[in-house]
Design brief:
The complex is a heterodimer of chains A (312) and B (310). Chain A has 312 residues and is mostly helical. Chain A contains 15 helices and two strands. Classes of the chains: A mainly alpha (312), B mainly alpha (310).
Chain lengths: 312, 310
């Protein structure tokens, strides 16, 4: 022990100096990310834990939360609107997201052409996406009007009779899906960035090997952009499961609960009836549902998503 | 031997010429089809917005015509004045602007700090923390809605703009702020390390390196974040709906929804669509101004996140 320290004696100043520098670097690192650590603790971690606690309570904001065990979960299972809301949301998500992605990819392919003035078109296709959701929904309420809306006017050119887009329970969800198609600019731009990253040499090589346009697309482009497709799919599904503003503004859940989406239903419990405990339960259940969908997608993704550099 | 070489040379020349001719024919036809399809899609894409503007200029009563009047006649610019005169539209505009600007300022400042930490500094658990940060991107914000409401209520922040601003001075919390951190970090990673190493040798502090070297160089990423953030806050509906109640703090998004349900402009169950559309256009204008003045950052911003490659 003594000889050990003796041996080290000549170097201590330098060593502690180095060590303190290293420590300082760690400290500085934490200092820089400290806003995020505080924000994560305050606005993510704490709310999630608190919400989990609330989901086992009855809490109307007036008195303190009252512990009720699993009764919120029991109540949810027997609530006839639970399946309606979840079913509506799943129906909307599973139909809207694939259509949105196909349209976004199609538009990105159009915009990936080497044409003059392509920027003008890029702007035209992206513009509706930056439109405020509320302004957009209000506009669509007007356009879907059965009496004087332009949807019926345009369909009238083809001899289709007037439809009650937002008043017919069978048409309301499709009407929402159609509306959502004007807000796919984000996905489109991400696809476009993906398409532009596909190495031209690969496409050329396939072309020299005699692959036609369709085969080049299917066997070269699609695998190369599969990570982007996957990214859009995962985030699209997470986003769609939380659809709220459109239904809240356009139909408020009607007609006949046809557009009662999960978050709208949850919103009513929380902010119209002040059942905070029950709403927290519903939030956690939705998180679970979304998590399951996401995990399934990650599991399936191994079969079809190709990451360059990981080997084939 | 020479002849064979010549033949093969000729043959090669022949095929190249044929190929270019073929390619030429393909491209002109391809261009034509490309343009036609683009034009068709662009018209459909812009139709709702054009309809919004057209309606906002219609004389009262003409917005209910069927078949619809495509081009307003007469053109009534006065609808915009009426929209401002019959409501506190100017105030709602100011509220929305204030919230969007303050939240964006916080986002850009704190996200760049955090991004610098993740891009340039070493500390224990950096990898794990970064993975946690990224995973919050996929966290459905809806789970934290109820507890954050309770939290802000306890703090007495309900019906003040604070819940819409303060989280953004902490990297955005569960509200999706990780996106901006990620975007800026990706950009900073591309900047040469020699820059900060040289500054470090010269005795500059890390904060100085961040403020004087990294921030100015990261302008494109900061601009993209600022634009995304501003538009997000300007358009946001759910958070103002939950955290703001009174007319005093009403935002444009809340006002439009309020207008639709109360039919302020018409009474007798008749929505004044022309005024409503005028108010919508007013809400749209700042977004368009920003979009057109900083369009290039949009595409670059998305490409920057590295989503394209991975």
């Amino acid at each position: 022990m003594a000889s050990h320290t003796a041996q080290l004696r000549p170097t201590p100043p330098a060593k502690t100096g180095l060590r303190s520098i290293r420590w300082r670097r760690h400290l500085v690192g934490y200092l820089f990310i400290s806003p995020w650590i505080a924000g994560f603790a305050l606005f993510t971690a704490f709310p999630m834990i608190y919400s989990l606690f609330l989901s086992f309570t009855k809490y109307d904001l007036l008195g303190p939360p009252e512990f009720v065990g699993f009764s919120n979960f029991e109540r949810m299972v027997s609530d006839h609107l639970f399946l309606t809301a979840l079913g509506n949301t799943a129906f909307y998500t599973l139909l809207a997201v694939p259509i949105q992605l196909l349209l976004a990819l199609f538009m990105a392919l159009l915009l990936n052409q080497k044409l003059r003035g392509i920027n003008v078109f890029r702007t035209a296709l992206y513009l509706p996406t930056v439109t405020p959701t509320v302004a957009f929904v209000v506009l669509f309420v007007y356009m879907y009007n059965p009496e004087f809306g332009i949807f019926n006017a345009i369909l009238g050119w083809f001899g289709v009779p007037k439809q009650g887009w937002l008043t017919d329970p069978n048409l309301a969800k499709p009407a929402f899906i159609i509306m959502s198609l004007w807000h796919v600019g984000g996905q489109m731009v991400i696809f476009l960035a993906g398409l532009q990253a596909v190495p031209e040499t690969l496409v050329e090589a396939a072309s020299i090997d005699g692959a036609g346009k369709f085969r080049r697309f299917w066997h070269v482009t699609v695998p190369m952009i599969s990570p982007v497709i996957f990214f859009n799919l995962v985030l699209g599904i997470i986003g769609s499961f939380q659809v709220f503003a459109t239904a809240y503004i356009a139909t408020n859940g009607g007609p006949k609960h046809a557009t009662l989406f999960y978050v709208l239903w949850m919103y009513r419990h929380a902010f119209e009836n002040f059942r905070m405990g029950y709403a927290a339960t519903l939030g956690w259940v939705l998180l679970g549902v979304i998590l399951i969908f996401t995990l399934i997608q990650f599991a399936i993704s191994r079969r079809w998503v190709y990451y360059e550099g990981e080997g084939a | 031997m020479q002849r064979i070489g010549q033949i093969s040379f000729q043959a090669r020349e022949g095929t190249t010429r044929r190929r270019t001719l073929l390619a030429y024919g393909q491209t002109t036809l391809g261009h034509l089809v490309g343009y036609a399809t683009l034009f068709f899609v662009a018209v459909i894409s812009l139709l709702p917005l054009l309809w919004m503007v057209s309606t906002s200029l219609k004389e009262f009563g003409r917005e209910f015509l069927f078949p619809p009047q495509w081009i307003p006649n007469p053109v009534v610019f006065g609808n915009y004045i009426t929209a401002f005169e019959t409501s506190n539209l100017a105030r709602y505009f100011g509220n929305t602007l204030m919230i969007a600007v303050l939240a964006t300022l916080g986002t850009v400042l704190t996200s760049s700090l955090i991004a610098f930490g993740f891009a340039r500094l070493e500390f224990f658990g950096k990898r794990v923390l970064f993975i946690i940060l990224l995973s919050t991107l996929m966290l459905p914000g809806i789970v934290t809605l109820v507890p954050t409401f309770v939290l802000f209520r306890t703090l007495g922040w309900i019906d003040t703009p604070l819940p819409l601003i303060v989280p953004w001075w902490f990297g955005g919390g569960a509200f999706g702020g990780a996106f901006y951190v990620f975007l800026i970090r990706q950009f900073m990673l591309q900047l040469p390390r020699e820059l900060d190493e040289a500054a470090l040798v010269d005795g500059a502090s890390y904060f100085r390196i961040y403020w004087r070297i990294m921030l100015p160089l990261s302008k494109p990423a900061l601009a993209a974040s600022a634009i995304f953030s501003f538009i997000h806050h300007w358009n946001d509906f759910l958070n103002p709906l939950i955290f703001l109640n009174s007319e005093e703090w009403r935002t444009l998004a809340l006002y439009l929804r309020f207008f639709l349900y109360t039919e302020v402009g018409g009474g007798a169950g008749l929505t004044r669509w022309n005024l409503m559309m005028a108010a919508s256009v007013v809400m749209l204008i700042p977004v368009l101004v920003i979009f057109f003045s900083a369009q290039r950052y949009f595409i670059r911003g998305v490409a920057l996140t590295g989503i394209a490659g991975r």
